[in-house]
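User: I would dearly like some help making sense of a protein record. This is the protein in question:
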Amino acid sequence: MMCGNRQRRGVRPAGRASARLLASGLFAFSLAATEPALAFELFGITLFGAEDKTADVADPLRYSVSLTVAGDDELRKILEDASSLVADESRPVSGSLGLIAKARSDREQLIAALYREARYDGVVDVTIAGRPIDEIEPDAQFSGEPVPVVISVDPGSPFTFGTVRLDGDAAGLDPARFGLSSGASAGSDVILKAEAEIVRILKEEGRPLAAVSGRDVVADHQTRTLDVMLEVAAGPVAPYGETTVEGAETVDPAFTAMMAGLEPGRTYSPKEIEEARQRLVDLGVFSSVGVREGDALDASGAIPIKVEVSERKHRYFGVGATVSNTEGLGIEGYWGHRNLFGRAEKLRVEGSISRIGDTSQFGKLNYNAAIMFEKPGVFGPASKFYSNVRTVFEHPEAYDRFSIKAASGLEYQFAKVHTVSGEVAVEWSKVEDALNPGGVRHLLVSIPLQYVFDNRDSRLDPKRGFRALAFAEPTYDFENGATFVKFRGEASAYRAIDDAGKFVFAARAAAGSIVGADLASVPADRRFYVGGGGSVRGYAYQGIGPKDSGGKPTGGLSYVEGSAELRIAVNDTFGVVPFIDVGTVSASSTPSLSGLKAGAGVGIRYLTPFGPLRVDAAVPLNRDPGDPHFGVYAGIGQAF
């Protein structure tokens, strides 16, 4: 792949018009981008400040680096991004030997970056303290920090594809379909993507052993063209064989194999392999999961499947908080076990207190405590059983409520994007509100039913996809004889405007209706309310909708909500989100747009591995007396 020339490393061969490139080096080199190191940590995530860069480095040696690229400023920026010497300039290396090794590795990374830009006759010179790195002996010592490192790049000329041919089992495919067109830019990543796409197409036919069996790539430096021949072996269509599990210690290996869901005898599918991996990740008991097919078919002609896992700590605990100028401070704590009986059964105990600062009376704070249990795989890999007991003592603006609720249900996911669930719930409560000032006791038995369609590319920070929810909850009140059904529907869509996903438009719409009983007969906590951080920002929690003569919310039997956001990624860490929300609540069961309220504002996002940290500020656009002048909301995750 890379030919030496006068102690320099590049791809310009000495004294030849063309060179055969070694594909394993040319097309397998990947760049690991290095992010700047910061010091202040939250939950193990470094946020702000400067860390001690010498703490874990033996014999630290500092260096300075300069990189010059002949005649191409745009390419210079690409090469700077590819250079670990440039990215890590503020971090010391481990002695002189560490600097030599880093410089040699960096040269290979820069040459690989030139190949990605179709520059196959580029030359990269690297010197340390004025000496070419190929002339420096391994035991050389450098003094006088920072040690000067100079990188000089002659990028050469861009190459285009010349003759392109697909052989073997790919002979019937058109190379142009994969970007391999004569005269097109011949970047190495184009060839890599073409290979991956060809293999993917064959594997989707049920051929687990499909692979590129031969590769012939020739650069002609006189014509600046790259001739490519790819030979592909498809292999036979094969079913799944036995699934074996490695790395499971306290989690039952047989259960793990069952949850993978790759039933022996069913035709191999790479999509199902990825779905199996994701299903095992979603169990929450593994820190890493690998699912891969074997290198050869077994004696029966099936493809064995190997699952490799690493277990997480099964016990965990944590705390969290939310804050809003309209709703006060909320804190929560929780403890859980991810593998209670050895088959990923989950037990979680949690409690929370909210409205801190919003009220000075302890008896008016909101208290919530719950015990939750979940068992996956009760009727196959796509199912789970869940049960919970929850007690609530809350005092929002609209009502005062004490309740104890127990529920058990089943959830089933099919085709990855469809989830249905149903449960039976029993709740005893006492609720006092504007329509029932003396308080009313309820004994409610309900059967909540829900369907969710979700094809978003990410649940934490989606950039593409759609989510829809349909919910129905028939309920009977044994204390008061009321029967009613609560319906609710939601839909949200996400669309990246640019290819890089830096600009994402997100929209949400929701509506609901309660039928079968009048407003006073429906418990106040079961009615609809709009307003607050998870609804129409800029207004108080439950602040939109019908109110009594004293201005206290009564809730309603129907509602309509909508939101739109433009999520702008300023960089890989921070984002800005302008948004607008609208919503209204009606006392009747028929949704109405009369009394529609709107709020608008802007938020910032700090991206972390566990989701964006969110701070939103909003103002009401059609404020009534008693409504706040603005609202500030903070939490984890996007608003929707």
